[in-house]
Amino acid sequence: MAETVKKTKAPAKPRKAPAKKAAILTMKAPGTPKSVSHEDVAQLAHRFWAERGFQHGHDAEDWFRAEQELRGKAS
Fold first, then answer.
1. CA 60, CA 40: separation in Å to the nearest integer?
2. What is the pLDDT of residue 36?
3. pLDDT at 55
4. Angle of helix 38-51 relative to helix 59-70, nearest 10 degrees?
5. Would you give the DSSP letter of residue 71?
6. Three-state DSSP class for 45?
7. b vs e for 9-30, b when ≥16 Cβ sit within 10 Å of the residue's Cβ?
8. DSSP letter string over 9-33?
9. What are the C-alpha distances in Å from 52 to residues 9, 16, 24, 57, 65?
10. Domain ranges of the chain
């Protein structure tokens, strides 16, 4: 009977690390509102609510005011 030779697998090729996405630098036009995080707006809106004595019914006003202040467009 013929002797069978077991083939060995070739060593696995090293995997390449995923390519890092290049940072995209964007310049905003003057007057363009800066972006603010949801969390920052929520915290500031909550503070406005607390300052008003936790009165309900003005949540949208608090949220809008917080967005405007954080974007530097408070009037």
1. 15
2. 87
3. 93
4. 120
5. T
6. helix
7. eeeeeeeeeeeeeeeeeeeeee
8. PPPPPPPPPPPPPPPPP--PPTTPP
9. 72, 56, 41, 11, 13
10. 38-70
By residue count, the chain amounts to 75
How is residue 60 written in tokens? 């949208």
DSSP code, position 51: H
List of the chain residues with pLDDT < 50: 21-27
Tokens 């083939």 sit on residue: 7
Distance CA 67, CA 51 (A): 17
The burial of 36, by beta-carbon neighbours within 10 Å (0-12 exposed, 13-18 middle, 19 or more buried), is given as middle
Q: How far apart are CA 42 and CA 18, in angstroms?
A: 35
CB neighbours of 61 closer than 8 A, spacing ≥ 6? Answer: none
